[in-house]
Amino acid sequence: MSDLPARRLLLVHAHPDDESINNGATMARYAAEGALVTLVTCTLGEEGEVIPPELAHLAPDREDRLGPHRVGELAAAMTELGVTDHRFLGGPGRFRDSGMMGAEQNKRDNAFWNTDVDTAAPYLVEVIRETRPQVLVTYDPDGGYGHPDHIQAHRVATRAAELAADPAYRPDLGEPGRRG
Is pLDDT of 175 > 80? Predict the structure, then answer.
């Protein structure tokens, strides 16, 4: 993105639908006005509550296919909001939804809540440096209501902003062919 729009907004949310619930109107407005609106979603939302009975089979304790379903919902939401730049932190599925605070899922090795901040932040540093947002939106330190992934999104976004501001910092994503 060498020719960046004059106004740039980056939002960091934990799960698909958090962006629409929390900032959907803001995203739509700025996108409609020509601003670059970038959304980074940290997990696929695999542990979310399944409300419609016809989707109950997607639940993590059944087929465990809620994440891919929510990816489709998120793509549809981005189309409706006019947002064309959406990314998953580190790629789709790198970090898994941690469930609610204190849940057994919090302890999984790949749970977002269980991920070291300095392991996740470099992925966001790359997005920050590419899009150069004037505004970064995420949760407050309590994650709004204490959800572990919301808290972690705040921590990761805050750390990534600090690291991105340091011209000497070079993310090491541990991937072949990547500069460390």
Answer: no
DSSP 13: E
Phi-psi region of 7 (alpha: psi -120 to 50; beta: other; left: phi over 0): beta
The interaxial angle of helices 18-32 and 66-81, nearest 10 deg, is 30
Whether this model's pTM surpasses 0.90: yes
Question: Residues 43, 122, 127, 153: what is their CA dihedral angle, to the nearest 10 degrees?
Answer: 40
Which of 96, 114, 82 is CA-nearest to residue 48? 96
Are residues 39 and 85 in contact, defined by beta-carbon separation less than 8 angstroms?
Answer: yes
pLDDT in tens, 28-75: 999 999 999 999 999 999 999 999 999 999 999 999 999 999 999 999
Q: Identify the sign of the CA torsion 25, 86, 1, 159.
A: positive
CB atoms under 10 Å from CB of 11, counted, come to 25
pLDDT given for residue 180 in this prediction: 32
Fill in the amino acid letter for 19.
Answer: E
